[in-house]
Amino acid sequence: MTDDTVHHIREDKFNIGPYNLLQWYLIYLVSSLDLLNFTLLHKLTRYGNEYHHSCRVFRTSLQITVTICVKNYITLYHSKELALQFADTMSALQIADLQNSARTSLTSQIDQLAGQNVLPPLSEKICVDEKLKLSNENFKETIYNFYNDIRTTPLNQLKSTPPFPTPYVLAQFASKAYEGCKTEETDAQYEKRLDLPDGWKLLTTASNDSKTNGYFGAAYWHPEHQQVVIAHRGTKFTSLGALWTDVVGVLFKYYASQIESASTFAHKVVIVLREANQEMGTNFQLFFTGHSLGGWLAQVTTFTTEYLKTEGNNFLKSNNDQDSFHPHTVVFDSPGCKDMLTQMTDKLDVRLDGRSIDIEHLDITSYLSVPNRINTCNKHVGTVCRIFPDLSDMGWQQKHTLTYNAATHNMDKIVGSFDPFTGQVHKDEQGQLRVQVVIDWPISAGLLGGEEYRSFFEWAKHLNNYHPDIKDVSFGHSCLIRYQTKLYDERVSSLSVFSQEEEEFLQCYRWLRQWPEFFKPKELFSAMEGNQAQVEAENILQNFKIESDTVRCTEASALQALIPYVKRLLQLFPEIKENTKRALSSDEVRNRVYRFETRRYVERIRQSKLEFNSDASGFREFLESEEQ
Questions:
Q1: CA–CA separation, 496 vs 366, rounded Å?
Q2: What is the DSSP annotation of 330-344?
Q3: pLDDT at site 94
Q4: Taking the model in full, what pTM does it have?
Q5: What Rg, from alpha-carbon coordinates, does the chain have?
Q6: What is the three-state SS of 118-176?
Q7: DSSP 8-class letter at 280
Q8: Of 48, 54, 126, 131, whose Cβ has the fewest other Cβ atoms within 10 Å?
Q9: What is the pLDDT of residues 475-492, one digit of tens each?
Q10: Tally of CB atoms within 10 A around 439
């Protein structure tokens, strides 16, 4: 946008409808940010005030511009100087509301960038379980002894980056958690009885045998892969404490003692893994799993590991994001944990400005069987997948009585849904994975299940299966049941699989990759000695795309390689993240990135189904138009 454009607007005296005005705002936002032309903004504002001081649409557009400019220049480029320059320009305009907009946006964004020190509320709801017993109190020594005689370089560790444990392996651990350690049985005897997957060993078990608790969990580790899996046991019907947790915790969302036991166990393991990474040069990745109640506890400990620390005898919110683990959690037929995690967030974090806990950022994947009274207890969080266990042996009694819940919730059937050779779910006759991504899921209520639960089974019976097609013509233009799924794409993963730091690196790398003249891989990967390692890093990072809240690769194998590689790359070579940010620091690159992102968002707005009435003579008429 040039000065001629400004004069043209002035001569026309803004004689335009709301559609043109909003369209002008979008065009202005794209074109004027080439060099962040503050002088032009000054002229536009002055002319707007001269002719239409009361035009709220115009002023609102400028306020939005102020907010977007400040936010993007800080979050994208971490440049306080540019934001301050923008705020000073707003001050020079002598317009109170625009000046306040700039100051408010600037303060908020800089506070977030600097990690504003917000004091968390004191919550004594979750305490350290001092009665928790470990079968191997010296499991730290077990880890250290293994690596004492191993000398490896960061580059060798990166080259040997293993894939994540497959869902089949994690399902096995969730199932084996039910096989508790027998009295007087040693860890070696217990490990032999479990018949663990290749390369995996028992690290330690944890238990609280009190009648009101009954918690049991186990930590397994793969020394060569530097991976640890913590599996929590589900409901054991002979355990009063487990049944109590089902009622108090799962159903009524109150804190139960097993939450403290599971969180304490996870915390003890995390402390040792963190020390090993710092002192031994290892690069441990942490995983949680569990079935039923065990899956519920796995999601709780994902939350406590990501966001909490221990202080004295209590778990409190941690402000040190750099020191936290970002565990990968896979659970099976969980009763749903979103309500509990939301309540924990409200108790442990501030409620308004400065809130930093985000449960949607947790890396949680839930595999659900057919809807039953267990997996419809509560809302789910994270990525939810519907699998199809073989239910062909279900008789009339199992389909029409309460035993249906036990049959469809059976962990052996769930494990049987996965292929031991590929580690993923089995494929159907057409070669497609027998799994769907859940869009909507019913929630049961009361003794009879409630309306949502009953409605699903009415349709399931009508269609003679437990996977009704919501596109069936009998549904009309809306879905009559709270059950919808879509095709599963194994080339796509939620961005929550990455920590915030990892996601920022991928975003910056993606922007740099757009312009070959600025993209210099050898400089980015200079911390990695050896041309071959640099070429490998460039190859692994060349094919991913970030779309909305997902990351996509061209092949499933490429995605499975990308995720653990990025995590290990940034932990072993943190300089690479700094190199990437530094490569984006030049004005020319910044402006290209800014224009690219702005045009992308504008294009998304233009594709919106919302259409404005270009003939409206005023904002009120535009809002009251019956045609919109």
A1: 14
A2: EEES----HHHHHHH
A3: 42
A4: 0.79
A5: 28
A6: CCCCCCCCCECCCCCEECCCCHHHHHHHHHHCCCCCHHHHHHCCCCCCCHHHHHHHHHH
A7: T
A8: 54
A9: 445 566 888 899 999 999
A10: 14
